[in-house]
Design brief:
The chain is mostly helical. The chain contains 11 helices and no strands. α8 runs parallel beside α10 and α8 packs parallel to α11. The N and C termini lie far apart (66 Å).
Length: 398
């Protein structure tokens, strides 16, 4: 497998992420034609301006609602879509600001990608990892996309339902947003509706592309760590000279160090976003659950899709971060269960260095406040349920 073939495999595994990037006018490669270049820049500028105004207008609407009618049933239904907007804005800024770093990480990944010929067991590990990643990405993409379109089309659906029942009906708006003009005039209403569909879709595309990029990179590093385990377990399985054993161990140590460095760079890149993600995920899940159980019967399907995408979104991040944590910890076990006793003292010393380093965890964090793992996911769900019971109690009392 050549370097270009490795690039092709990596791009295929991240194809949904790159597709969503193109939909917001973002790319790691510069278009060759000037017309394509300026069209891409214009689309990206419109996308960024759209989500920024979407975020600000929802924030102003929440403040005005809280000021005029600070009841739980009026304020809480606004919070989960606002929280989603906060996540989209923060991830969009990281995508734009850290563009060159992300591009470099993708190039580095190409250099350490497993190339043929590789053993059958190693090929099975690689195929299983890519297949699992592809399935997770498709589910996440499908849920988010269907969710935003259900939100976008719900006002039209409500309009026809009320029309069918013989009630007074008019097409409403997608999001609860504030505008510095009268948005109910016919022509302005149409433009506002189109803008809200565009801004909501842009938020979803940004969320998808950044989350799938992070989960894809972490999945690939987890796969490489498991392939390294396979190499270590087969150490000294075939008779070689002492120098050959030593070179093989050094090669494994260098690969391990490179994977650690890669994870550290990825952790630094996503640390702040992960913190915002963990904080707002609990709020988003809690608020949308409150709305599903107690309020808004017309929005129940859209909100259920929102709940599903929120659970998968934070679950995806926690799952692959947890996978790397355990894959690195298993490096020490793989080295210890190898035929190290057949090697010379200098080979054993080098292997001991590898074991000691692998006992130091590789963990993605939320700005060093907490490690991200499946334990974190469990804590988020527990915290969301606690918030929900508190809101339910307050709502029942009122």
């Amino acid at each position: 497998m050549t370097n270009e073939e490795a690039k092709k495999e990596i791009e295929e595994s991240l194809s949904l992420s790159f597709f969503c990037m193109q939909c917001i006018g973002f790319s790691f490669t510069v278009p060759k034609r000037p017309s394509s270049y300026y069209r891409q820049k214009l689309l990206f500028l419109l996308s960024i301006c759209g989500i920024f105004y979407h975020f600000l207008s929802e924030f102003v609407y929440i403040i005005l609602t809280f000021w005029n009618s600070p009841r739980i049933e009026n304020v809480v239904p606004l919070l989960h879509t606002f929280g989603y907007g906060v996540l989209a804005v923060s991830k969009g800024l990281v995508l734009w600001y850290k563009k060159n770093v992300l591009k470099q990480l993708l190039l580095e990944l190409r250099d350490i990608w497993p190339m043929s010929p590789i053993e059958e067991d190693s090929q099975n590990i690689k195929s299983k990892s890519l297949s699992g990643l592809r399935t997770a990405h498709r589910w996440y993409f499908g849920l988010n996309l269907s969710g935003v379109w259900f939100y976008s089309l719900t006002p039209i659906g409500i309009y026809f339902i009320r029309l069918f029942k013989g009630q007074n009906a008019e097409i409403g708006f997608v999001w609860a947003s504030w505008y510095p003009f009268d948005k109910n005039k016919f022509v302005i209403h149409i433009f506002v509706y189109i803008f809200e569909v565009f801004s909501g879709q842009t938020c979803v595309f940004i969320m998808i592309c950044t989350d799938l990029l992070f989960s894809g990179m972490t999945s690939h590093i987890g796969m490489l760590l498991r392939l390294l385990q396979r190499k270590l377990k087969s150490l000294a399985f075939v008779n070689k000279s002492d120098d050959e054993y030593y070179e093989e161990i050094l090669s494994n140590i260098k690969l391990h160090q490179r994977l650690i460095s890669y994870c550290n760079n990825l952790e630094e890149l996503y640390s702040l976003v992960n913190l915002i993600n963990i904080v707002f995920s609990s709020i988003n899940i809690c608020c949308v659950l409150f709305v599903i159980v107690l309020l808004e019967p017309f929005m129940v399907l859209s909100n259920k899709l929102f709940l599903g995408s929120s659970l998968i979104q934070i679950g995806l991040i926690c799952w692959y971060a947890d996978d790397i944590y355990h894959a690195n910890a298993d490096i020490a076990s793989a080295a210890y269960t190898s035929s190290w006793y057949k090697t010379s003292p200098r080979c054993r010393r080098a292997l001991l260095f590898l074991i000691q380093r692998s006992q130091k965890p590789i963990a993605f964090t939320a700005m060093k406040f907490t490690n991200i793992s499946l334990v974190t996911y469990s804590a988020i769900l527990t915290r969301s349920y606690s918030y929900f019971t508190l809101l339910y109690t307050m709502y029942s009392d009122n």
